[in-house]
Amino acid sequence: MFDIVYTYLQAPIGSLLLAGDGVRLSKVGFPNGKGRVAPQDHWRRDDGQFVEARAQLSAYFAGELRAFDIELMPVGSPFQLAVWQALTAIPYGATMSYGELASRIGRPSASRAVGAANGANPIPIIVPCHRVIGASGALTGFGGGIDTKRWLLAHEQGGAPGALQGSLF
């Protein structure tokens, strides 16, 4: 196991916790909702870390960045990793249903499992789980709360779809 360091980024949606090994992110935590992440006792705060992640997230929130290029270190099952990788291919400003995402990973009958993996995404925003919506177009659960999901989607609706997200690995 690596030493976990963390810092915070003040964003329009609240104070985001960034955690990982100092360069590679393994967690982005919201200040509220089921996606709230609080530092563990053995974590070490270092506000000098995650320089690139903080810069890119700030540019995203300023409307200046549509595709992230940040080193990530997600921890999950092979199925979760496949879902999270597929999330990075949803273009900025676009949305996709859970069923569509399940089809994209070759598991068309696994929309519920895809939903569970989507909900377990430890690196939201950068791995854009907020872009997944219900088949009816309804906004469904989100770790930062539905208002945060609505804000993120509205933030992205003003621009044309950008380049595809980079690889997780």
Question: Care to describe what's here?
Answer:
The chain has two domains: 57 residues, Double Stranded RNA Binding Domain (2-Layer Sandwich); 80 residues, Arc Repressor Mutant, subunit A (Orthogonal Bundle). 29% of the residues lie in helices and 15% in strands. The chain starts with a strand and ends in a 12-residue tail after the last helix. The longest helix is centred in the last third of the chain and has 12 residues. The chain has a four-stranded mixed sheet, with helices on one face. It has a two-stranded parallel ribbon with strand order 5-6. The C terminus is likely disordered. The chain has 169 residues and is α/β, with parallel strands linked by helices.
Ordered list of secondary-structure elements with their pairings:
Elements lengths: L4 E7 L2 E7 L4 E5 L14 E2 L5 H11 L16 H10 L8 E2 H7 L6 H9 L12 E2 L12 H12 L12
Parallel strand pairs: 1-4, 5-6
Antiparallel strand pairs: 1-2, 2-3
Helix pairs in contact: 3-4
